[in-house]
Amino acid sequence: MTTHRIRVGIDVGGTFTDAVAVDAATLELRGQVKVPTSHHHEDGVAHGIVEALDRLLEQTGNAPEDVAFLAHGTTQATNALLEGDVATVGLIGIGTGPGAALTRRLASFRNLELTPGKRLPLHYAHVADPEDTAEVRRAVDEVVREGAEVLVASQPFSVDRPEGEEAVLEAARGKGLPMTAAHAITSLYGLQKRTRTAVVNAAILPRMLATADLVDAAITKAGVTSPLMVMRCDGGVMSLDEMRRRPLLTVLSGPAAGVAGALMQERISEGLFLETGGTSTDISVVRRGKVAVRHATILGKTSYLSALDVRTVGVGGGSMVRISGGTAGTGGTGGKVTAVGPRSAHIAGLPYACFADPDDLRDATLATVSPLADDPADYAVLDAAGGRFAITMTCAANALGRVPEGDFARSDQETAKAALAPLAAALGVDVATAATQVLDAGTVQVKAVVDTLISEYRLDKDNAVLVGGGGGAASVTPHLAVLCEREGRIAAHSEVISPIGVALALVREQIERIIPGAGQEQILAVRAEAERAVVAQGAAADGVEVEVTVDPQTSTVRAVATGATELRTQDRAHRADDGERLRAAAASLKADPAEVRVLAGTPSHTVYGTELRRRYRATRHPVRVVDADGVVRLHSPDARVETTTAGAAPQVLATLVDEVTSYGDGGVRAPALRLLIGSRISDLSGVVEPQSLLALARSELSGRAADEPVVAVVEART
């Protein structure tokens, strides 16, 4: 069955707003547009969003009511912090005795540096008794007189006893200012970090509220009835109401959109996503089908904002080549490519040489310049008949034929070779060697970060792939794959991978609680809270997946819930047959297909395995789970696989967990358990206490038909 319903993703960048329409059933790209970001319009970026939507609907022939899902990502919050364009915060500290000393120290947040020479505008006032309405109002009046535009209330241990913060906000409600309580931003302990996170959230709150209202009104006026969602910094989306409460979640959401696109469109299960623009490359990790997330550093301090772990390298498609010796038209040889970047052609105000008209490159000579006044004068440029041109990573990639047909960065290969010829002469090598040296110098910087991430996250080195996105993807990823001797590819429609990610992203919520000695009921309560949160934001209840992790060292219980706003059937034109799935599993296992067996299966997944016999060491049983599209969704270096039914599973799992649980100096450690149920892979590997693990498994099985097949993939922990 086909449908004309579409999912729309809009990525609001600093210069351009990109929008895409994706078929809601097949998830195929149906249209894409680019308009200038409307920073200076009276409606702000909302105007550009609606303009992009109008053009997109015209291009695809859809009506506003055909939009099944609409989400946008924005750099507005990030830019506000980078540029210091924030509201003045009024911070009300609460406490008596030792508690008062702790909260009074929070006044030091006014020293947080936004930009060089500009600090966070913050005024502090203190109340001893939050129930004393007169005292609270005096404190609020004090910070308002000093210019506060938004209020934050903070009290020690408010995670457990929020009444004080709530009482302060209630007493201040008549002022008509945006307000937030520190405990409402994060439920983790740590007064300084919790309050700092809340203060930064408050600083961007008024501006983001105004934008949210404008965008909401504009989309409604355009006739779109589906709720508007906003991209989060952890790879999911949230409702507009949730963004109004926690706009900080949109900070650093730019790279998250690209990774979401890679996950959903490219179906990465293990590897790295490299989003390359003109100046830099953002590198993110996908491990076992999930993005790597950590607490972000904001304004030079750690926060409780869970964001994508993104490492940025100053190398992109427009990065300029730096050289020494044999330059400046001397005609001599013996020169050397010393580096690439960090300056780009864009910063230098120069066009890429490979995109020049061939006549404009006549009589080209090599010279070196300083792109900016304080830069070294070792950046290579061409002075030719048509003017001055930059020699870039994109020029080198095109000269080597590394940029595929139809790619955003594709140029004529002969023109690219002509652009590299003066550099090659200065280096005393041929054009292909010169281009290789340029790409080597650029990608070696990226490779160092890639190698670090593979090690840090313990990625499966045999199966980790490199996927490139962004307009400059072809200048980095293909050559990096050769350098790393690793599988690499450029994502389809890489130049719009970010808005595609916005269009395909799932509703996401993360709940964290510090619960010493957390029992089954407490863990299940956190899980249920996360599930309710995504359903409240529009996720279809039947499709919500929740991953729970319990960290015994920090006593942190974390539940991450994800779900789609509609149950997607994803009627794809192609489904992999048995042979294709077997070959995908065998390739991942690095085994002959004849040695790979089908161990189990559900209607959505097939489990394959083989046996590795090793002299003097125990035999291993590596496992791969392949979905209906032929994509490896789960891999284990050594696992036990059992098939059962939903009705029998509780007893079967109890026996399995008992047999595979390990005991040692580190305590009791249940196995890493994953369940294949229906169309889902339920990941329960974050829980190491056996009884809590079994309780979570029962919650995953509840409501299932007794005869529904269930497959358990069990890994012993070492």
What does this protein look like?
With 718 residues, the protein is of the alpha+beta class. Helices cover 32% and strands 30% of the residues. It has 19 helices and 40 strands. A 6-stranded mixed beta sheet has the order 3-2-1-4-11-12. Strands 13, 14, 15, 18, 24 and 25 form a 6-stranded mixed beta sheet that branches. Strands 8-5-9-10 form a 4-stranded parallel beta sheet, with helices on both faces. Helix 4 crosses helix 5 (163-172), helix 11 packs across helix 12 (413-427) and helix 12 packs across helix 13 (431-456). The protein is globular and about 80 Å long. It starts with 5 loop residues before the first strand and ends with a strand.
Question: What's the helix and strand layout?
Answer:
Blueprint (H helix, E strand, L loop, with lengths): L5 E7 L3 E8 L5 E8 L8 H16 L6 E8 L1 H8 L5 E6 L3 H7 L8 E3 L2 E2 L2 E6 L5 H13 L4 E5 L8 H10 L6 E3 H4 L5 H31 L6 E4 L5 E3 H6 L7 H13 L4 E7 L4 E7 L2 E2 L1 E6 L2 E8 L2 E3 L5 E6 L11 E9 H4 L16 E5 L9 E6 L2 E4 L2 H7 L13 H15 L3 H26 L8 E5 L7 H8 L3 E3 L6 H8 L2 E8 L5 H17 L8 E7 L4 E8 L14 H12 L7 E5 L3 E5 L2 E3 L2 E4 L2 E5 L4 E5 L3 E6 L3 H12 L1 E3 L2 E3 L2 E6 L2 E4 L6 H12 L7 E7 L3
Parallel strand pairs: 1-4, 4-11, 5-8, 5-9, 9-10, 13-24, 24-25
Antiparallel strand pairs: 1-2, 2-3, 6-7, 11-12, 13-14, 14-15, 14-18, 16-17, 19-20, 21-22, 22-23, 26-28, 27-28, 29-30, 30-33, 31-32, 33-34, 35-40, 36-37, 38-39, 38-40
Brief overview, please?
With 718 residues, the protein is α+β, with helices and mostly antiparallel strands. Helices cover 32% and strands 30% of the residues.
